[in-house]
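Lab notebook: predicted structure, single chain.

Context: the supervisor wants predicted structures on file for every construct in the current expression panel, including those that have not yet been purified. This is the next one on the list. No modifications to the sequence; it matches the entry in the shared construct table.
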Amino acid sequence: MEESLAPSTEARQQLISVVSPEARQPLLSVVLPVFREGAHLAALLADVRSFLRQCNLPYELIIVDDGSPDNTWQVITAESETSRALRALRLSRNFGKESALCAGLEHARGDAVIVMDADGQHPPSLIPDMVGLWQSSGADIVEALKRRRGRESLASKFGAQLFYFILNRLSGFHFKGASDFKLMNRKAVDAWLRMHERNVFFRGMTVWMGFNTVQIPFEVVPRSAGRSTWSILKRLKLALIGITAFSSFPLHVVTFAGVVFLGLSVLLGLQTLYLKLAGRAVSGFATVILLELIIGSLLMISLGVIGEYLARIYEEVKGRPRYLVEESIEPGDV
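Prediction complete. Output recorded below exactly as produced.
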C-alpha cells in the first residue's frame, strides 16, 4: 500500500523537538469540503493522492462531509480503510461550504494547507505546481487564479461579474478570477483561524489578511459528475455576506440618499409655498403619487439594507458554533 502516513500531534511535536526545522520535511494538509459527491469522490481522492506523492512530502487528507444525504460518508469510510493519511469529519447537517471549510482548516495540522473543491473543477494536477511555487517563492499564500470561469449560463456569468464589480469597488480589494483553491502556510492559516465571524467569506478573508500572495493560473474544468448544488438563492446569500462583511458603504449610500431627498423636498416645498402665496397653485395629484412611490421605494430599500447589517450582527452576537461534528474518522480508528 503506497500511502503517506500523517503523524499524530504528539509524534509531530516530538519530531519537531528532535529534528531541526531545516531538516524536517513540512507536512501538507489537503482540505476537501464535500456535499453529495459520493458518485466520483473515490476517483477524485485517487487523483489527489497521486499528485500529492509527486511532491515527495508527508501529507494528510481532511475530508469534511457537509451533511450529505447520499452515500458520501460511506465512500469516505471505505477510503479510510485503505488510506492511513485520511482524516474525516461528518457534520450533523448541511451547514454550508464555508462552514465545512472552517471545520477542515481548524483540524488541519500541516505546515501548508491546500483548500480545494471536491467537484473536480479544481484540478489536482495543479497541486505539485502550487507546492513548488510555495517552496521556491517563500510566499504565505499561493492562490489558483481562474483564467476563465468555465462552462456556465449567461445569467450566472453576469451575476458573478456584477458581484465582483460591486465587491471590488466597495471593499478596495481585487477579487477578479479569485477562487477557493489556495495553499496557505501555517502562519496564514493560524491568522485566518483568529477570525471568528459566523458569516464566512473565505476568499475575501484571505485577501483581507494581506499576506504575501503569489498567483498561479488554471482552467476551470467541467464537474466530474452530477450538478452544482449552488442555487441562485445560495449564491445571492453568499454575495450579500461578502458585500456586508467587507464594506459598510451601502449604509452610507442610504444616508446620502436621505440627504439628497431631503434637499429635493425642501426645494419642492419652497416652490409649492411660493405658488400658493402667488395664487398660482395647481393640482398636482400625479406629481404627489410619483413622489410617494419614489420615496416609499427608497425607504423600503433603505430598511432592507439596514436589515441585512442587523441580520449579520444578530447572527454574530448569538455566538453559536459555525458547525457541529456528528462523527469523525482518525487514522487510528481503522
